[in-house]
Amino acid sequence: EPTHEPTHEPTHEPTPQPTPQPTPQPTSQPTPQPTPRPTTLPTPQPTPQPTTEPTPQPTSELTPRPTQRPTVDTCGNSRRTVVYFNVHAGDAPLELLLTLSLGETVIFSKANFRRNRLRTIRRCLNLERWCYKASLTDSGENGFTGAENFFSVVVGGVEVERVSGSTLGSGVDFFIGNSCVAATSAPTISPPTSAPTPSPTPAPIISCPGSRSQVEVTVDTAGSAGDFKFVLSRDGQTRMERTNFNRARTFSWCLNLRRCFTARLENEGCNGFQGEGFFAAVINGSEVGRFTGNWGCDVEINLGDCPA
User: Composition bias, kind Pro residues: at what positions (predicted)?
Assistant: First the structure.
């Protein structure tokens, strides 16, 4: 038999597997990021204020409030002047009465004032020709209850008369007009003497209307003790009473002397005047009666057509 050698399988060397190399990591370093520098903030500057000045206000100051009423004459008649009568009543306003008179004619009267309130009455008056009398009477005879309360008269923007506080007493008269004699003026005082007292210098004549006459009565107690009261009567009827004679007071009227008027002064102490006090009456600039010294409880001066 033929000898057959066994068929040998080809010897195959196993294909060597390549030794896996580790995947090389990239040797490059990561791209360095630039180190951020701290952002330098600009030093804050203060917000500049506008250099322009604010819009200037008008340089003219506000017109100050006048202390009196306006001086502009708003009366339609150029011969008339604006006159204001101011009454600032106190705690007893119902005791007050304001009247404005021309001679014996009452032009207006006002009452019912309000407590601690100012009331102003405006009138257009012919001060060039007439003499007006403004009277404020107090039935309580104690004047205003506080120094802040007053009665004043303003002529053409100027305060010409004022009384305040308790000095009002039972009342006061203010005379307004170019032809008036000042209410506070008194004839020259003469010392007491047994000889006839010379008459004072005649006062300017008030332009009284019609047939009326200017009559003035002056009471100057010169500090005499006792309470005094002045009374003006017509035909026996009392027309006016006044007290509070701590200073010389002169009353002036335009009277129809065809009637009988009597000026009487009473003294509670019944001892008249001490010192240089006097009580006198003047008609149209001529003195018609005067009393000085100790005249007792009361004296009278007749004015006009009175029975003997």
Answer: 13-57
Residue type, 161: E
**Residue 165 phi, psi (nearest 5):** 60, -155
Residue among 249, 238, 258 nearest 173 (CA):
249
pLDDT tens string 85-139 = 999 887 777 778 888 888 778 888 888 788 888 999 999 988 888 888 888 887 7
Give the chain's domains with CATH numbers.
69-180 (2.60.40), 182-189+203-308 (2.60.60)
| Strand, coil or helix: 16 | coil
- How far is the C-alpha of 168 from the C-alpha of 134, rounded, in Å? 13
List, as one string, the DSSP characters of 23-84.
Answer: -PPP-SPP-PPP-PPPP-PPPPPPPPPPSSPPPPPPSSPPPPPPSSS--S---SSTT-EEEE
Instruction: Name the CA radius of gyration of the chain, rounded.
Output: 53
Angle at 193 between CA 183 and CA 244, to 5 degrees: 30
Residue type, 190: S
